[in-house]
Write a structure and sequence with these properties.
The protein is α+β, with helices and mostly antiparallel strands and 548 residues long. It has 21 helices and 22 strands. The N and C termini lie far apart (66 Å).
């Protein structure tokens, strides 16, 4: 085993040498040979026994740290997990779950999955998995125990409210689809809303299905929510962007020193080429999300609203190694149609990587970046702040212009046309959230109100008609006090609408799943509310673009 791993280290070093394409001479020994020489010396001479696997992984990570923050080493387990996430399906029993107060709760069985077929229900408490207790189980342990190859079986024992005895189920694992459309709904009679959580193999098909359903309900304008979307497959992002952009236009292009230049174009006659669009982004919108937002902004097809995006514009290629681990190496860079480099600046080394990610949380406090000034204006006015008004104050962001002459800014990430932020929630609210008290309350409420599922057959009815009462809120406050979160009247009054909305959303999640929760949480979303107020500007933009 040590010989194999030692060879792996040398192979990794050789790959690195081929990538950088240079041999740095030092006393007649090139850089690749020098790495192998160091490994040999350490193994033969170090005072203690050397763990070859740990040594090789450390060496590989050290090599990659000298490149950029997105060139990384992945263990075999990380490789498997990554494939599952982006294939659009995994193999398991098919439930959305949560662990609340040391109890494994079935949030909802996934439609069409094996758990739904054999009768597992929302609110079931799983107490054993294959004769092992599930009390106190962690989320990672749940995934490890319940996922597995298609065709294998797992036995679970559940406690179901209203049933006198535990129920036992034998579930045959199967392929379970994972969805990238987090929510799709009509906000009013003409405005559709689609939230894309990531870009996987099935994203475009899911997106088209959602668009068709919303258009059938009368949608003539769309809010596309890319907040928190970390990216994914390039081809899926290009297909989504293409639906909004007519003709044969460049959507994104890549450039790298050792790979062929690539340009990606739209095609004519797609679904939503003339209607008004507002795109929501934040600092968690990265990679493929930035490609979509950048293309729509560059062609005047959408107003971009929110915060400056993550700024990941580096293309990685994955090289699998002998033990099923892999390295992802950056091979090129993404540019928007106007020529803006999406990637923000970074420094090499471990400290450089730390600074790269820390910068995200400090961005709106950095006095050298106008986003901090924009946030000060937002906090005073609670109105969207136009980014173009800060152009003259910031020399670090190159000015580009769209076909209509609008100013869009380079310098890393997609800088929105209008800055907006969500409310900063109080400590009292955050404590309840951290201790999962909303979830615990929702479970208890549903146990006591079993007819709720029959009263509201569809989440749309629940969203429009269910009202969180004052007695419900008092019960939540009492629960929080019992769990060590004392009542804070000032904080409660400040966030009362958020407390009530979260209670309602969490109850919906326990009945219909995470998409239902999202559809309710957005109703108190400050950024979304302001985005809706910007549709007159988006309409003007769409009309001018169509007239060109």
């Amino acid at each position: 085993m040590r010989v194999v791993v030692g060879a792996l280290l040398i192979a990794g070093a050789i790959i690195f040498g081929l990538i950088v394409g240079s041999k740095l001479q030092l006393r007649g020994v090139d850089s690749v040979a020098k790495v192998g020489q160091v490994v040999s010396i350490v193994k033969k001479n170090y005072v203690d026994e050397v763990d070859d696997a740990q040594l090789s992984e450390s060496a590989i990570k050290g090599i990659l740290e000298q490149l950029d923050p997105h060139s990384v080493y992945m263990t075999p387990a990380q490789v498997r997990k990554s494939k599952e996430e982006f294939q659009g399906n995994f193999e398991g029993i098919g439930i959305e779950f949560d662990v609340i107060a040391d109890t494994l709760i079935v949030v909802t069985p996934i439609a069409g999955g094996p758990s739904e077929k054999i009768g597992l229900q929302s609110g079931d408490r799983i107490i054993t998995i294959d004769d092992s207790t599930a009390v106190g189980i962690t989320r990672d342990e749940v995934i490890k125990k319940l996922r597995g190859p298609k065709g294998t079986t797992v036995n679970v024992k559940v406690i179901r409210p209203g049933e006198p005895m535990p129920l036992v189920f034998t579930i045959t694992r199967d392929k379970i689809p994972t969805y990238s459309v987090g929510a799709a709904m009509m906000l009013d009679e003409k405005t559709g809303y689609i939230k894309l959580d990531r870009f996987v193999q099935t994203t475009y098909d899911e997106f088209i299905d959602a668009m068709k359903a919303l258009k059938a309900q009368g949608m003539t304008q769309l809010v596309l929510d890319l907040r928190g979307n970390p990216g994914g497959y390039l081809d899926q992002a290009i297909k989504v962007a293409d639906e909004f952009i007519g003709g044969m236009k460049k959507l994104v292009y890549t450039r790298g020193a050792h790979v062929k230049d690539e340009d990606f174009f739209s095609k004519p006659n797609d679904m939503f080429e003339k209607e008004s669009v507002v795109v929501l982004i934040n600092r968690g919108s990265a990679s493929a999300s930035e490609i979509v937002a950048g293309a729509l902004q560059d062609y005047d097809r959408a107003l971009i609203v929110g915060e400056t995006s993550f700024g990941k514009g580096l293309v990685q290629r994955q090289f699998e190694l002998a033990d099923s681990s892999a390295i992802r190496v950056t091979i090129s860079k993404y540019y928007t149609p106007s020529g803006r480099l999406i990637q923000r600046k970074y420094r090499s080394g471990k400290r450089g990587r730390e600074d790269y990610y820390n910068e995200l949380s400090e961005r709106d406090k950095d006095e050298h970046f106008f986003e901090s000034e924009a946030k000060k204006v937002w906090s005073l006015t609670r109105k969207p702040v136009e980014a173009a008004t800060f152009v003259e104050r910031d020399s670090t962001h190159e000015v580009f212009r769209t076909p209509l002459g609008r100013v869009v800014l380079g310098g890393g990430g997609i800088i929105p046309d209008y800055f907006c932020w969500n409310d900063t929630l109080t400590g009292y609210y955050r404590q309840m959230l951290a201790k999962q008290l909303f979830d615990e309350f929702a479970l208890a409420y549903l146990d006591q109100n079993k007819s709720l599922k029959q009263t509201y057959e569809k989440v749309e009815d629940f969203r429009k008609n269910f009202v969180v009462s004052e007695s419900m809120m008092q019960a939540l406050i009492t629960l929080a006090e019992k769990k060590g979160v004392p009542y804070n009247e000032r904080d409660y009054k400040q966030d009362e609408r958020h407390f009530k909305n979260m209670v309602k959303a969490t109850i919906a999640r326990q009945i219909w799943g995470y998409k239902a929760q999202t559809s309710i949480l957005i109703m108190e979303d400050a950024v979304l509310k302001e985005a809706l107020n910007l549709f007159p500007k988006a309409n003007t933009l769409a009309n001018l673009t169509s007239a060109r």
